[in-house]
Amino acid sequence: MKSFSEIETTSKRATRAAGFSWGEAEEVGKSIRLLELYGLGGIKNLNEYYNSRSIKKYENIKLISENNNSDKFPFCPIILGINFLDQIKTLEKLNKIKFDKISYPLLILPFLSRASEIIGKKINLKFDQYEFLLNLNNNILSNLFNKEYPIISNITEVSILENEDNFTDKEWKNLYKLSEKIFVEETESLKQGAAGAGLTDND
Amino acid sequence: MEVKLRDPNIIMKLSRLGSFHQSKLSFLRSFLDEFHDWEYKRDLFDLNKKGHGTAVYSLKKKNRIYSLVCFANEINDEERSDRVIATKWDAAFTLHDGIPTKQDIDRLKNEVPKQEVGRLSYKELTLSRANKSVRVFNHVVESLSKGNQPDIELLKKVGYLYRTTAVYGSGKFGLADRFRIKNREEINGPFRLEMMLVYLVRQFTFDQVNHVAKSKNPKTFVSLDLKICKKLGIGNSTGLGMAPFIVNHPTLLNNWIISRETALKKIREIKNVNSDTVELFKKSVNNSIKNIINWNTESEYQQKKIASLLKNLRKFSKFIEKEFDFETNYPFNEIYFWLEKKTCDECIEYVVSIMMEPFDDIVKPLVSKMSSDEDQHFNIPAERTVEDLRYIIEKRYPDILKINFDKKENKKNFWFISKNKEEPRYADRFKENGSELEQPLAIARDVKKLHEQLLNSKNSSTIDKFLIKNSDLRHVVRRAFIIEKFPYAEIQDNTIGEKVVPIDMLRLKLSFFGALKFDPRSDKWLRICMFQGAPLPHELKNYDQQWVYNS
Questions:
Q1: Which of A37, A169, B17, B342 has the most CB atoms less than 10 A away?
Q2: Between chains, do B471 and A23 touch, taking CB under 8 Å as contact?
Q3: ipTM for this model
Q4: Residues of the domain holding B452
């Protein structure tokens, strides 16, 4: 078994060898480590993507906006991921961000995951029939687990989710009611003597 | 009175960092401190008459056990090499997490002697190999087998029976990643398990030499005197492999240096010291002089440094014995000023290390702050502005910005990774091939370039936009934002210039390990000694804290 340290170092070096800058290579090293840690096919996808670069062309996105259409070729997932991460404080203000074609879309997940941690909000990613929830860089939820990863996404939609409860008000109230059963009913004497602070603060 | 931390622009110069010495903060000393109450055991010792075979040593506390698994092999004299390109060693070691099963030992027997081309598992924590100092080892075997103790003078000169040539950890070759162990209570300082491996290897070398001598002549054999064992450590040959580490781990480097600087600051801020403190300090200074006298090297560069250190240290000893009044307010602050005025870098840093000896209350809390969760500081705050970044660079890299990188001598060398051993190397870019594959270790040059690009950019522009046009500078943008928060994170020198002495980078790291007797063999590699004078495993429960100076 390869250690995560080996995965990070080799991904970084391979990225540099594929023509990216050292700083970008450092980002990719961390990202592939993260994908492998979450049990997703980081090494497999990075390998396939770099192999494909010798025969296919990809487009580098620069400033990301609400709707991002590539001119001719699909977007490079590395440059897209890095720019998404760098621009997240601006992108946070947009509700939905759309990209038409991204090659090896799995590779953008760790960048979105880290972006989610930076803004403290969950991020949802959808393309084709697949869906991912990036959860403040604590985990990646997906309906793609153990399936073949797509090499291109057609319409990709990224939603930055507002911090909201995952449950209904009724569910919360019911649980809270149950939790109240551990509280002690306060008598007059407990009110007088059991708290630390004084009863009047007019001194 | 508040004393300021020393200026990183002075302390982080390579010549200063290359004058650092071991101290109470050093990792081998904090390792002994942490593990002094663990139960030591030799679990297996299955060597043939020549000393080849398998041995297992362990340290145990409650449910936690660490086991050193040793494989001693037969090699021919012509196969013995300390260089990283070697493929065979007298002995190979791994530190196993827990008690190794028979299957584990069989697996390790096949992999550990292969070192870099073997595969370890998450159950192994560190990996190393070592070669005998054949001259010393054979002399000790010969003497003991005849019933005599060896020649102390010869042993003193070398200082060890074996020297290691690499100690690997943190996920290399399949070893456990650091995150698997970093939350363990006992792993509260850097390189703890690397130090454990070296310490247990030291004991193996004593057991092996006794075993071989006894096998040679059981009737006349005597064991190596424990007092002599104590005077022996473990040698280490270190090449350039270690140098990039301190560039590649900026927050870790900061935490090592700032701990040392904080200790010094707090000691200088003490208004009055008692007589016990004064005596301990003076005793350590005076006892340490013999370490300097016994510090042997053929390197002219180091000989000059040692001569200057010895001369200055004797002057300092006379000063504190005869002239200085320790009842003066803030005595260590006064001493520090005297050192700055009257001595050399090597002596200043030597005495700074000794100043820590009486102050466990200051030093011990700092030990646990010397690790770093580097990932916490990896993200670039890309919403910040060009003006912010330019300000950071001008404030934190003042001397580096003065370097003219158009001059050949300032960009003479480049760092690269060799294909055959995947190890860092250093070469002349104008004479050798491969500079197009340069590693990102020319920080000074790249920071200067970044500054020039920032001067050509709009102040209010944000870093995300700057990086779109300047992705080649991304690695130094990250570093600049790190150094904003971690002032000692960066070497304030040009690491590719003509005048660079790469062993200064090794010396810095090795001083934090706790190494003694730096012996440069060229400007690119050196030998050192670790644990010389350290307590033996059976003495760990109650040992002299100043063993470095008193042994």
A1: B17
A2: yes
A3: 0.90
A4: 240-249+372-514
